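Problem 12. The chain below contains 328 residues. Write out its predicted structure in token notation.
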Amino acid sequence: MIAKEMIAEKVFAEGVAKDIRNFLPAKYENAEFQVMQMNKNNGVQMVGVQVRLQEENVCPVVYVEPFFNEIRLGEPVEKVMNEIARCMEEAGNVPFLHSGINPMDYDSVKEHLAVMLVNTQANKRMLQEMPHENMEDLSAICYVDFLVESNDGKATMKVKNEHLKMWNVDAKEMFRQARANTQPVNTPILQSMDEMLLSIFNEEGHATNLLDENVDFGLRSHDMLYALTNVEKQYGASMITQPEVLNKLEQLFPEGFYVLPSSVHEVLIVPDNGEMEPKMLGEMVREVNKNEVERQEVLSDRVYSYDKEKHQIRQEPDSIQQVKEMGR
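Solution.
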């Protein structure tokens, strides 16, 4: 966001924090409203107003950008403030706030921990506040996957250093717990892109999870492209950090394979059959990131291959073109 626009949004947010109480029900009479500048993935910054009620452990944040744009387009201030107030009430009633998970208690959250993969360079500031594990040019962080028993969306909370201190848990134990959990966001899925496309256009079609032990992979072993994610297709690129997933991929692709970072939600697996060069694959990844992926969801502009000796992925030097990577 341009600095001038960010300043204008913060001024608007400060006005909202000061006056929004007048547009809310009586239960918000003693609530605290605070302007927050949140660092999102890849350096994306957003300004919001946080609502803190004494009886709640979680404090939702309403981002002001869409409302600020309405004001700039000439919408009446009172109308926009009523819209913000309605959003705050809705945010306070979303199911995850009443899911029984207490973010201040490690025993309450530990079974809901999961791993997210982000770009290290693009998130240097954010990573200073978070426990993380480095993997090539990427970093694994942990988040709490809140239970949401409705269609209201996804609710997550990134784990910061202050959480570890409050929980009295070390980072290694937290990551071990996160990878051991078995909720849908931790359950990997590998699917043939050809089969996925057919299932999209054919309502009765179904893309098979090729990581299932009872699936005959030979039927699809000649496909050129596969998608790796998790059951919820949410932050599924982190599946590449699971050793058991890499071991299974090594079995399925004994000739080797490349990993293309499609987004923070998914990676693409390309068998190394000698037909695709890392330089060309890197150009493809950068082109897709530039034109088709929202900046906040870009994972990397680089391509990786599987190191059979070390049993881990590594960057392909020929795929790197630093001056054009992620707009850095």
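Discussion. Residues 3-93 form one domain. Students who got a different answer should revisit the alignment rule from Section 12.3.
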